[in-house]
Amino acid sequence: MASGPDEDGRERIVQASIPANDVEKIAGEQALEQRAMKLADQAKQADESFSKDLRPRRFQDYVGQRAVVDSISIAVMAAKKRGDVLDHALFHGPPGLGKTTISQIIARELDSQLIHTSGPALERPADVVGLLSNLKRGDVLFIDEIHRLSHAVEEYLYSAMEDFRVDFMTGAGAFAKSINLPLQPFTLIGSTTRAGMLSAPLRERFGLAYHLDFYSTEELAQVVTRSAGILEIDIDETGAHEIARRSRGTPRISNRLLRRVRDFAEVRNSGTVTDKVASDALEIEGVDKLGLDRLDRLYLLTLSKNYQGGPAGIQALAATINEDQQTLEDVVEPFLLKIGFIVRTPQGRRTTPDGFGHIGLPPRLDGPAGQGTLL
Ligand code: ADP
What we know:
Blueprint: E1 11-13, H1 24-28, H2 31-52, H3 66-82, E2 89-92, H4 99-109, E3 114-118, H5 125-133, E4 140-144, H6 151-163, E5 165-170, E6 177-182, E7 187-192, H7 200-204, E8 208-211, H8 217-230, H9 237-245, H10 251-268, H11 275-284, H12 294-306, H13 314-321, H14 325-338, E9 342-345, E10 348-351, H15 353-358
Parallel strand pairs: 1-3, 2-7, 2-8, 3-4, 4-7
Antiparallel strand pairs: 5-6, 9-10
The structure holds adenosine-5'-diphosphate.
């Protein structure tokens, strides 16, 4: 089992566990794959430990998302008071908005162990059976990218989530045997950038479901100030706001930009990070005043110039930009939609007048009104 306790020793990051007893044989067949997953897991842990210090550890340190935090913290307190396990919870929203972070906080507030895995890592039913059979009462099983679970694996989760048991077959032909394995009550937390890709039966099994939205500049300035304190970066209020304004509403980006600004300030000997230092550093990084990076601008330019503002299909755009379609849909589009630079219509994506304006092009004059091309 690949595991790595954090400072308070309660978290384990597990890609796939090596199960005991009945399921041992099944998992044995997966030895090679598990080794590969273990390597991937180690890489992820290294990544995690790099950013771990910046992760808020308690609800009160988690900036923004007030409605979500209020609701989930009440559910956590109620479950603790009753001595019950927390209902299964689903978090959805664009990457970097704090889905993993809030899941870790939930496990910590419950005094539970968090077992961290992801949809693509649970490739075969044996992976999930092994993982589930090793859970202890009250454990929190966190599945990142839950929309990428295979259908076969997903089906095992249905009874596991609802009745805390799994049924599976061992052997073949005349030796085939059905085993009904009772599980310890646990909480499943799913995280996804694509709630729409979850099957209805899986979605319905989550008692709690939350959407995380982009953060305001004020909130991100708080994130920047907090992270700067931890990283011992000398920054004033104007510097924190400048980084926040250019963070595309996303705390992960705030932390990344803060590190780039720190590098710049150190090399230029700028001392305190002010708005001027931050904007100079981020211009070099290719991050513009609204936080759009090179890929965002390339997307906007392609849609507005090559496709005259659309409508254009996402596949055509991905092919023209030579970028993965999913990256465009998950990373680029949500923020451009949020700030009103593009709209999605049944015919495809279109640039709005604000979108044209941002890249210095005149709005198209022949688009149908109400679809965002012409106003
Ligand atoms: P997701 O799982 O949604 O992709 P993460 O939970 O990994 O996002 O968050 C990315 C980073 O952003 C974390 O390392 C954390 O430092 C920071 N972060 C996310 N949400 C918050 C928040 N609400 N307050 C402060 N920092 C946050």
